[in-house]
Structures are given as structure tokens and as C-alpha cells.
Amino acid sequence: MSRAIVIGGSIAGLCSARVLADFFDEVILLDRDQFPAEVAPRSGVPQARHVHALLRRGLQELEGLFPGFTDALLATGAVAMDNGSDMALLRYWGWQDVAPLGSTSLCASRDMIEWTVRSLLRRQTAVQIVVGSAVTGLRASAERHLRVAGVRVRQGDGSSQEIRADLVVDASGRSSRVESWLRDLGIEAPRTQCVDAGAGYASRWYQPPPRAERPAHWWWTALWIDAQPGLPRGAVLFPTEGDRWVVTAAGINGQYPPTDEAGFMQFLGSLGSPAIVHTIARCQPISPIFGNRSTANVYRRYDDWHRELPGFIATGDSVCAFNPIYGQGMTCAAVCASILHRVLRSPWPRGGFERRFFRRQAGFLDDVWALSTGADFLWPETIGERPRTPRIVTKYADLAIESAHHDAALLRHLMPIYDLSGSAARYFEPRFAAKALLAACKRRVTQRLFGDQAIPDLPPVPEDFDPNRKRPSFASLRPGYAAEDPSGAGAQPLHSRAAKPAKRSAVRSAG
Ligand SMILES: Cc1cc2nc3c(=O)[nH]c(=O)nc-3n(C[C@H](O)[C@H](O)[C@H](O)COP(=O)(O)OP(=O)(O)OC[C@H]3O[C@@H](n4cnc5c(N)ncnc54)[C@H](O)[C@@H]3O)c2cc1C
Hints:
By secondary structure, the chain is of the alpha+beta class. The chain has helices spanning 11-20, 56-65, 69-75, 110-121, 178-184, 261-269, 275-280, 329-345, 353-376, 391-405, 408-418, 430-450, 494-497, 502-510, and strands at residues 3-7, 26-30, 79-82, 87-91, 94-95, 104-107, 127-130, 133-142, 146-155, 160-164, 167-170, 192-196, 200-207, 222-225, 233-240, 244-251, 284-285, 290-292, 297-300, 312-314, 320-321, 383-384. Flavin-adenine dinucleotide binds next to helix 1, strand 8 and helix 8.
């Protein structure tokens, strides 16, 4: 009987287990935590106390992996939002034009997202979820060549056990102990890249006043006050299920937001707009203030690892963890699970599956890494290996983003880059580039002639604002959609492409 083991039962582990269930007779998902029966925090994912934006591509992928995910999340009270018409966003150049962007988000707590995915995974009879089991090492077999053949596990009662497997997947997150596990096997770990912008989060949860008592100028569904040159601090206010709001303050280059009441409020008051601090003054705090500084971009380069280690792969944050400010982690975990599916079902002969997976995964992650670290290097005290992007390209991209900030049509063109459903090549499409540059020139001329326009402190109410407007629809996320996909791994529903016969061949190739 073929068996796969997944280490870690968070988003990357749950998505990987779903894919492996189509190829292995048995999938054991191990987590050191106990999973709460209801939606509740757990210690293994401390980041869940902070805002977790699920990008459109992530929603698409999760819907592909777990058909019904979107409806299940909506049924919990998650809030559907268009990132243009439902959000008040302040950037350096002013408040973003309020217009539908077609880039939709589903706002829910991280705990609820994970709980929903886990509930859907439980429908897979091949998957066994084992909690309270911390993996302490890899088990090797060396018949002819060294290969991973299972894991060593420590249970809650202190006892240890070994579990055999044909494939082991490390999905244990950014604090994975994989270096020490590999060292125990006498293997040098892959090289690691790190880019650290010195970012930190502080978050608090609030109960807003009942809808009828909210002031008319609270037209928005979410507020976003971005960091600006010279002011490396920002904050967001996002709704979640249960009619709660989460406020996350973020500081960059060591400007960590405080976690005491007075310091937190002072930090929020020091941003480009007092909109969030004014709003929460009318809300009821329902949590302490939580801090988090696990934000460096860290990339374990398995794709150019000189070792072949059959029987072992890694995914999720344990391979590439990003600065969370860009909201990419869960989406990447889901995309990489789809890539795993593609690699497992490909008709390649036996052997080398692990390396093929690492390379295909890196083919996707490299672009996201460039986006995330490229943005981090806009801050002068960011440390690490700089991407080799020519200055003129960075300058042009800045101009294009500025033009798009004032023009919903241009922004609509760029949104797929930010929600990871399109590639950065969109910046350089000639029609877009011409319009963006022309708009930038016009703006410079206007500024010269008339000076800078004053930016209102609070988000202005859009002139044609309709409080009864229709909520964005997620119909296009239903199985059957085809995403624009730079990696070639766009989500399609797994149930339609997973074939029973694949089970055997994949196990052979994984061995
Ligand atoms: C402050 C912060 C904010 C974030 N905001 C966003 C956001 O807005 N949008 C977004 O998409 N992403 C965000 N992320 C990233 C996101 O949380 C992760 O990318 C996502 O959870 C996927 O991570 P993962 O499953 O790889 O690992 P994790 O979520 O870190 O989970 C690792 C799992 O492995 C288990 N584990 C660890 N070691 C062992 C072991 N030895 N044995 C057994 N089990 C083990 C843990 O208990 C845990 O369940 C944020 C991250 C941080 C830190």
C-alpha cells in the first residue's frame, strides 16, 4: 500500500494532502498541534491573529482543489469585496479612485479559512489527520541510494514512533527544522536566500457599531492606509466573518508598531490619514493587541540543490516565506499544490519526480519572490540579495503604478500581477505602457502649472456611491474556470482531472 506523509496541517499541508489523496492509497497528515473542533486559534499558526488577505488567485486555486470552498466560506459570513469599489485606499499620491476593479476578495479570519479547508479535506477518505504529533526527524533507507522512507514522531505523551512512507512532504512552515533533519541524515541543506525589510505587525480585533448606527461617511468595506516614502508605516482595517473587524498596523525598516494600548493608538494616529484611528474610536476592542515580527522573505533553494533525495519534497512557507505585507503566502501554498498535482500526473518515467517538482515550483515562486523582494528594496534599510532589476525598469514600474492609482482602467490591467493571476509582463504591454507614460506626463505638467492637489484626511464619499450596490460575484471561480497563468498551473477542479490509474504510476515515479 502506497503512503504519503505530510508534515504540518496548515494551508500548505492541507492543500498538498488533498492532491496526494489522488495518487497515494493513504495520506497521513501530521501536526504537532491539537486542531480545535470549532473555529479557534491554535499555537502552531500565531500569524492567524493578524489580517489574512486571500488573493483572487488563491481563492481560485482553493476552489479548484476543494470545490465548494467559496460557498462554504461565504456561508460562514465571510465578506465579499471588490478591491476597487469597496475599499478606501490611501497611497502616496492620494486616495485611490473608487471604481470596480473586478479583483475580488473574500475577507475572513485566517482561523476560518483554515477551518473551512480542513473540513473539506476531511471528505477525502484516503487522508488521515493525526494531531499532537511533532515530527522530530526523517527516516532514511539506503538500499542502493539514500532515500527518505518515513518520519520519526514524538507524541503528546512523550513517546516516539517511526512511520514508514513512500513520500514525505515538509509543509511545516517558515520555522521548519528541515536543516537539522537533513544534517541527521548526513546531508547538506539547500542554500537559503533571505531579504529582510525589518517589518513588524500589531493587530487588534474590534466589534463595529450596528450597521444602522454607522455614520454615512463609512461607505467603505475596508480601509487601507499605505506606507509612503519617508513614512514606512501603514495599517489596514478589514472585515471578517462574525461582523468583526481586524486592524493590523505594520511598520517597515524597524518601525515596529507597539503592542501596548497607548503606543498602538499613537502609531495609528501617525499614519498618512487618521481614518483608522477615528473609526476604531467608535468600535469595541474584543482582543488584546498581538505582535508579530516573523516577516523576512526566506527562500530555501531546493530547485538548485545539488542533492537528489528521493522520497522527500517541501512546499509552502517551509520553502518560500514572504513578507506578509503583500498577502501572498496562502495563495502560493495553494498554487504549489496544483503544481504538485501536475507533476505527479505527468507521464514522465520513474525517478527524478522530486527535482521536477522543485523546479516547477520555483518557476512560479521566483516571480512572486521578485515582486515581494523588489517592493521591499524600495525601503533603504532592507537587507539581503537585491534582485537584478535594472533601475530604469524599477523607475518605469513606479510611474506605471502611480498612473494606475489615478485611472481604474490602468489599475484593472495591473491587478492580475498583484493578485498573482497574471505575470509582471503586463507592465510592459505596449498599449498599457503608452497610456501609463502619457498619463504620467500629463500629471507632471498639471503639477507644474497648478501645484500639488491637497489630499483629504479622510476618504471622500464617492459622488455616485450606492449603499445598496450589488456585492461582487464569485461565479467565475466555480469549477471550470481557466486562469491566466504564467506558471502553467492554473486551477481547474481536481476532481475532474484526477484519475484512478494515476495513483499507481505516481507512486512509482515518486519512488
Ligand atoms: C504576520 C503574518 C501575516 C500574514 N498575512 C498573510 C496574508 O494576509 N495573506 C496570505 O496569503 N498569507 C499571509 N501570511 C502567510 C500565511 O500565514 C502562510 O503563508 C500560510 O499559512 C501557509 O503557511 P504554511 O502552511 O506553509 O505554514 P504555517 O501556516 O506556518 O503552518 C505550519 C504548520 O506546521 C505545523 N508544524 C510545524 N512544525 C511541525 C513539526 N515538527 N511536526 C508537525 N507539525 C509541525 C504547525 O503546527 C503548523 O500547523 C502571513 C504570515 C504572517 C507571519
